[in-house]
Amino acid sequence: MIIPKENRLTEEQEKELKEITSEFGIKLQTIKGDIRTIYAMVGDERNTLLIKRVEGLSYIDRVDTIQKPYKLMAKDNELASHRIMAGGKVIGNGHFTVIAGHCTIDHNNPQFFLETAHAVKEAGGDIIRGGVWKPRTSPYSFQGTLKNLDILMEAKAQTGLPVDTEVMDSEQLKAALDAGVDMLQVGARNALNYGLLKEIGQQVHGRDTVVLLKRGMHMGGVDEFILAAEYIVSAGCPNIVLTPRGTQPTMDGYRNHPDESITLLLKERTWAPVLVDPSHSVGKAAYVPFAALAAAAYGADGLIIESHVNPTHGIGDDPKQAVKPEVLATIIRDARAIHEMLRPTLKKITASAA
Q1: Helix (H, G, I), strand (E, B), or coil: what is residue 286?
Q2: Which tens digits make up the pLDDT trace of 64-117?
Q3: Burial class for 88, CB neighbours closer than 10 Å (0-12, 13-18, 19+)
Q4: In this structure, what are the phi and psi dihedrals at residue 127, rounded to the nearest 5 degrees?
Q5: What does the pLDDT read at residue 33?
Q6: Is it true that the peptide bond before 135 is cis, omega within 30 degrees of 0?
């Protein structure tokens, strides 16, 4: 659907517009209203070049595509009214959710994780993250162990907070669900593993378990990200959260290319809550607070942050990018203040794009 800047187009403008759309096999249908005339495109209106050429016309305000590559994830889908909760904690719907904890649980030093879990709760965190299993670039690096799952669930028992961990295959998925993990994380390396995404959706169907889907490591399009989530939702799990976490190629000085700015684009197109991961985005503890507040300013519904009571004694990514609990508390306070301040503006922006 084409929306002109003025109430209606002149004959010359309409003629030019029809010439452009006809090149793409699109018929233009004029819909005259009392105040404004809009122009519906009959045919496949998702052609990128078509949209660019039409939006490039000086007298066109925007093009709103009616046909979407995704259905269930679309902002106007009935699932937009679905409330997502992890262990009693509401995600989205005006709430600013913070997930925090270790990159990787160290089964040789479980006290560090348990202390961190309590510190996360004291700092104002809502959900505890802890890597039971971890994907590694090198096959010789520590991959995690099932023993960590017991430590994760002990942290849940002690704090009363829900817990989150990443799963990478069917065996890990079953173990996490059987243990009662509240949130399953799909990491960047599996973000486009459609077989796994469908299996997770099928296994979570009928449960309250939430799935946190991270954006793929390559700089894929926003629609590709949403379509990956569509696999999970269409398989039976509407409890989905989207997480930008930085992409490749890297930006010099950062671990990845920060992508918290796509939050607005996601919220314009889909109803799913967006929780940004600033830790993997920038990859250095000193930068995390700034990336976290930027995410809040872009309208994120929350954050997932690596935190550790003693980062130098952590394993995995924690020594480099985990923030201490006192820093986490400041991030949570400031990010929630930004979120509350910008909520009215964000609501207007995303509503106008719907």
Answers
A1: coil
A2: 775 678 878 989 877 888 899 999 999 999 999 999 999 999 999 999 999 999
A3: exposed
A4: -140, 145
A5: 47
A6: no
**What does 149-215 look like in DSSP terms, one character per residue?**
HHHHHHHHHHH---EEEE--SHHHHHHHHHHT-SEEEE-GGGTT-HHHHHHHHHHHTTS--EEEEEP
Residue 258 has which token pair? 């920060």
Tokens of 228: 């990956």
CATH of domain 2-63: 3.30.70
pLDDT interval class at 34 (50, 70, 90): very low
Average pLDDT over residues 266-287: 96
SS3 335: helix
Q: Alpha helices of the chain — where are they, by DSSP H?
A: 11-23, 48-55, 110-123, 147-159, 170-179, 194-204, 222-234, 262-269, 278-282, 288-297, 318-321, 325-353
Phi, psi of 11, deg, nearest 5: -60, -40
Domain boundaries, the chain: 2-63, 78-353
How many whole angstroms separate alpha carbon 73 and alpha carbon 230? 6
What CATH homologous superfamily does 78-353 map to?
Aldolase class I (3.20.20.70)
pLDDT of residue 36: 67
Average of per-residue pLDDT across 281-289: 97
Structure tokens at 89: 């904690």
Do 295 and 321 contact (CB within 8 A), yes or no? Answer: no
What's the whole-number average pLDDT of the chain? Answer: 91
